[in-house]
Amino acid sequence: MPKDSSIKSVLIIGSGPIIIGQACEFDYSGSQAARSLREEGIRVVLINSNPATIMTDPMMADKVYLLPLTVESIEQILEEQQIDAVLPTMGGQTALNLCKEVDELGIWQKYNVRLIGVDIKAIDKAEDREQFRQWMIRLGVPVAPARTANSFLEGKEFAQEIGFPLVIRPSFTLGGTGGGFVHSKDELDEALQRGLQASPIHEVLVEKAVLGWKEFELELLRDANDNVVIICTVENLDPMGVHTGDSITVAPAMTLSDTAFQDMRNKAQMMMRDLGNFAGGCNVQFSLNPENEELIAIEINPRVSRSSALASKATGYPIAKIAAKLAIGYTLDELENQITRTTSAFFEPALDYVIVKMPRWNFDKFKGADQTLGLQMKSVGEVMAIGRTFPEALQKACQSLENDALGLGYYGKSAMKSEQLLERLKTPTWDRIFRIKDALMEGVSVKHIHQMTYIDKWFLNQINDIVNMEKQLQEHDLDTIPKELLSDAKKMGFSDMQLVHLFGNCEEHEVYEKRKALGITRTYKMVDTCSAEFEAITPYFYSAFDTENESKPSDKKKVIVLGSGPNRIGQGIEFDYCCTHGLQAIQEAGFDAIMVNCNPETVSTDFDMANKLYFEPVFWEHLWEIIELEKPEGVIVQLGGQTALKLAKRLEEKGIKIIGTSFDNMDIAEDRGRFSDLLKELKIPYPNYGTAYNTDEAIEVAKEVGYPVLVRPSYVLGGQRMRIVINEEELESSVLSLLKHLPGNKILIDHFLDRCQEAEIDGIFDGENFHVMGVMEHIEPAGIHSGDSNAVLPAFNLSPMEVTTMEYYAEKIARALDIRGLINIQFAIKGGNVYVIEANPRASRTTPFIAKAYQVPYLNIATKVMLGVNKLTDFVIEKKLDGFAIKEPVFSFNKFPGVNKELGPEMKSTGEAIRFIKDLRDPYFRTLYKEKSMYLSK
């Protein structure tokens, strides 16, 4: 069936600001959907309130509305635009819930807009726990014994009927919000209250817990003709009881018998075909009893999800792109597989490699939070690794996490006694995979670990293979290691730095040179979706220690862009936005753009975004071998946050050109002490400061500069471990904590400017000309991290002299640092005096905010300046802003009950929204200003 020709315009609803449970995977899906529909000549209108996403860029849609995701905003759009249909399946639970609310008010019907991809009945069928349960019973698909409760008393009654342990599952929530396990009647009251409050319809499913069963997910697509294709089968390493977003997952499924697999496929297809009016991507979750392979259905999500992004990157199959085309009437057999070009989209991908997804947490930002993993998702991001074997992919995933893991192990940082380890294994926590490895190293049996964790023995035996290899490696040093053993270790994913720790008395570069001399180097394999059954040509690669190299370097000049790795607090989707624009600008400038990143949720890791994509850890060893193969003109580190910047020193040492600002000048800005010395030399006011390496030095410095003092380390992002302290006791505690977690780091202690305003400037410098892209004023006073502050663009409460002084200092710093490209400078203003706090010679959270607020191609200009192909005078920078733009931070404290919600110098927000107001009399702004600012007038 060809596309529905009556659909001329489509409204896509985004997911809003990043929160735990709903991250940048919806930026990826919304962007793909918009591109897919525009290919068909359909006018795309998009609503989203997130300024940090590529999805809300003017190039993605014909009209973008940066508005709050509310019924009022939807009605405004429908009044202004002629909309034929709305696609609600690309914006997660937020979009589905909003569509349902708009429908209940009769607004879709009023404006003659129809839902495509899914209808309200199908949404209710899948999202309403009781409807889903009754539907499964009618279909003959087993489900866990359960009852639906709409009140506290009903919940207590049903709990007594079913018996413990129980699961409380609220209806219409995302990321398991409000859900949890109840092991005894003592826990029931609190769990029921929490679940009922979390559900927008005050409804929970009280369900028998199947703890210890295995969990699987299927990613499927269905068209209007009831054709169903299974894109990917994903197995959770963790058993039931851990939210799938917090579980390590593996594709393809590793421990399923063929009988169980076929049963799962058949049930998933039957559920898809009976869902109702649905055409697009869907996620189905099952639980399987490992004793007898009894299968029960857990849930079905009639939309793209976090798993859809993972499955797309795992297989190379563009799920959201195809789902959008199915929503407008196409069938799977009519659409082309974009990678093979010879098969249809009805062709199921086949993998000849192993995928491991590993979540990334930020518990360090939520002191006192319960770190036990359960039904409520707590991870803030994830990484994906591709390997020829499970151990290789697992170790690559660990190297991608940005938490100092060199592979599966911390080597000396996580030593525990056997009794402690066994106690830790009983409870699922973020580091359990590392503790399992430690326990195996201590001689604990696979059988015993399986009994405590319920993790399948196949996975435990694979980890035990890593342990056995490590024990063999420890018997050698770099001089005595046999070639075959070294080769086997690399094939198992051991990094050179792991080998350094195991061998002792050698350096990373020596390990590399040794194996290179022995011919043990990486080759690159293509992700082709069909295990070479059909010819596929795609610029999407992963590394392996194999004989054949499928990545052939081109003769063109090329530039590598380093991505930012997993999302975490302080480094999120804004850097993917910057990388994506950087890739486009590089290609426009006539270079081949090469992307290196390991985050499956991002647009920058789409197979058609760069000339070449290496889905690899942003980890020195992996980067260096890519550089040796590709021989680029240089590497861009300004767009990938602290992850990329941390590799700049190694690049400099190897003589690799850093595109844009030099390493030494970036280091001056990153090193708190060097930067303060520069300000002193430039005669630019700054808070009194001193540097220290231990507590005694810190106490002396604090006495000299005067309390209160701000204690902060160098080379960190998101205000990590920054503290404001008011006395010697607090100072000593802060310094000891900092040295424990960041040993050897230079500590800057500067006088904290109490009760002052904070503001920041973003600018571009090309070596001759400096352009101020935006001056933002924070509503909150200094002392609260800029990422957690509401910021107003342009500044509203600063005198012209203060703004001029800020701009003068910003240009002076940019010239002194010889910046090429981006710089962000933060200021404190007190008593009419302007002080410089810090400078960031890179993209930052404010970069996309300014681009969206002023509607300027900020990153395109900055990247071309970095490359040296353009000067600022080559561009006409027109800023369009009628009134003010406000950057609003968004938090996910609801995931961590009882934690300290007080804001300070360490960033805690997970995302942000943008809001536009005409003038400062706006009621929203006046309320915000009174609540947040210490200044009621000036």
Automatic annotation (TrEMBL):
Keyword Magnesium carried by entry: yes
SMART domains registered for this protein in UniProt: CPSase_L_D3
Domain of life: Bacteria
Pathway linked to the protein: Amino-acid biosynthesis; L-arginine biosynthesis; carbamoyl phosphate from bicarbonate: step 1/1; Pyrimidine metabolism; UMP biosynthesis via de novo pathway; (S)-dihydroorotate from bicarbonate: step 1/3
Keyword Ligase appears in the UniProt entry: yes
GO MF: ATP binding; carbamoyl-phosphate synthase (ammonia) activity; carbamoyl-phosphate synthase (glutamine-hydrolyzing) activity; metal ion binding
Cofactors, names only: Mn(2+)
Catalysed transformations (reactions): hydrogencarbonate + L-glutamine + 2 ATP + H2O = carbamoyl phosphate + L-glutamate + 2 ADP + phosphate + 2 H(+); hydrogencarbonate + NH4(+) + 2 ATP = carbamoyl phosphate + 2 ADP + phosphate + 2 H(+)
One Gene Ontology biological process: pyrimidine nucleotide biosynthetic process
GO cellular component: a single term: cytoplasm
Keywords linked to the UniProt accession: Amino-acid biosynthesis, Arginine biosynthesis, ATP-binding, Ligase, Magnesium, Manganese, Metal-binding, Nucleotide-binding, Pyrimidine biosynthesis, Repeat
Pfam families in UniProt: CPSase_L_D1 (PF25596), CPSase_L_D2 (PF02786), CPSase_L_D3 (PF02787)
Domain ATP-grasp: residue ranges: 133-328, 676-867
Family: Belongs to the CarB family.
Record's function text: Large subunit of the glutamine-dependent carbamoyl phosphate synthetase (CPSase). CPSase catalyzes the formation of carbamoyl phosphate from the ammonia moiety of glutamine, carbonate, and phosphate donated by ATP, constituting the first step of 2 biosynthetic pathways, one leading to arginine and/or urea and the other to pyrimidine nucleotides.
The protein's assembly and partners: Composed of two chains; the small (or glutamine) chain promotes the hydrolysis of glutamine to ammonia, which is used by the large (or ammonia) chain to synthesize carbamoyl phosphate. Tetramer of heterodimers (alpha,beta)4.
Name of the protein in its database record: Carbamoyl-phosphate synthase large subunit
